Amino acid sequence: MRKTGVGLVVAAYALLLFLSLTSPGYARAHPHMDPVMLAQYAAPWPVALASALVVAGIMLAVVPLRRGERWALWTELAMFVILFITRVTTDARCLVVLDPHQHGCHSFIVAAILGVVGLALAWR
Fold first, then answer.
1. Long-range contacts of 51-59 (CB under 8 A, 24+ apart)
2. DSSP of 66-117, one letter per residue?
């Protein structure tokens, strides 16, 4: 069960890395959207920061979390909670994520939920 949980955590971080690295292309492909909001996620600094966080999260998942160390589980959970709270409070699109007819940050929410489910499975 722990291997499945660690795999889901790594998959969540891989999805977050994909979202971060593709955000500059997304911002160029959708010039009709709010450029200020897109610049918050597509600028070099947020992309580099998210990429560094993903690398740290993957390293925590494949080494100490896989061995069952509790401090790694709590650290990973704190990382997901901080990411989730920051994104939900700064991105108005995340507030409409429950409405399937409006565009929101569905991919980010899926990655966060996938990571938390993976952590719950790694707990056992």
1. 51/17, 51/20, 51/21, 53/16, 53/79, 53/83, 54/13, 54/14, 54/16, 54/17, 54/20, 57/9, 57/13, 58/10, 58/13, 58/14
2. TTT-HHHHHHHHHHHHHHHHHHHHH-GGGGGTT-TTS---HHHHHHHHHHHH
- Please give the Cα distance from 67 to 51 (Å, whole number): 24
Q: 51-74: per-residue pLDDT in tens?
A: 999 999 999 999 998 888 999 999
Higher pLDDT, 53 or 39: 53
How do residues 7-25 score in pLDDT, each as one tens digit? 999 999 999 999 888 877 7
Buried-exposed string 34-51: b where 16+ CB fall within 10 A, e elsewhere: eeeebeebbeeeebeebe
Residue 97 or 2, more confident: 2
